[in-house]
Amino acid sequence: MNFTEFRARYERREIIPYPNNVKEKPLLSVLVQTYNHENFIQKCLEGILEQRTDFDFEILLGEDNSTDKTRDICIEYAEKYPKKIRLFLHHPENKIKVLNIITGNFNALYNFYSARGEYIAFCEGDDVWKDPLKLQKQVDVLKQNTHLAFTYHSFIEVNHKEELLPKEFVLEQPAQNISREDLKKLNFHPLLSTMCFRNFGNELPEQMAEVINVDSFLLSLLGNFGEAEFIENIAPSYYKRHEGGMWSGRNKELKLKSKNLTFEALQKYYHYKGEEELNKEFRKEIKNTHRILFLYYLKKFQFLNSFYLMRSLF
Fold first, then answer.
1. What's the total number of domains in the chain?
2. Which of the 8 DSSP states describes residue 246?
3. 157 and 254 belong to one structural domain
4. Which of 50, 88, 102, 282 has most Cβ atoms within 10 angstroms of its Cβ?
């Protein structure tokens, strides 16, 4: 699915880019997706603007129709840095629903399609890069190692006050090089905001828009283009964990359904590509997820839901 096809399918109301003077051909594009981040977006943007590089980079800032002052802050920064920031002000009519949940997929993929750089880095609107040489270090490694699809580094998980979370509550980040096969099978899952990868073109699998875990689909996709290298000498980024978010503990059912949807999308993608081993791998993952969901429904006395899953287990 190319950009024209994506817009024809999902864009109900046209996105008009905010006026800017960004160069046509930067080496790198930083993709920032933001919604209701009024307390965080300034630090996020400052961490990007403070990057010291020997190449040009652009910031694609997708503001997703926030209900707080995030949009005003984004406009302020776009007007202050017209040679650096391309601002897209999104409309609620374009938001894509998945599992009956309104997602930021349109915003994320619109940014992705709009990127002009040879390399792409992500930074969520409430995350903060702490190393001003992060982009330079990552691009240098990618330039010197053509077998790599992306590089990544460590992060620190913090709450909304930027206080460290207890170790038992933090996400695990791999700290090693990752093979193509391990990426494609999602055996490791680096955080998107720590990654810098090659821009592999203007075509994306159509299944990518119809999952909640877009980052997981992207990771598997990147495995088709090369390996991943962990860079130790980059200061950890700050990754925000918000209480009561969509992935909080009480949403176990949603987590499982979302994971299953991603596995189904990847299974279809690799089936169409004729990669039978990966097709079988994700069929197995789908069955395992169904088994866990089946037991979850039994414990919750949701017998009708568990009955529907029985057919996929036997």
1. 2
2. T
3. no
4. 282
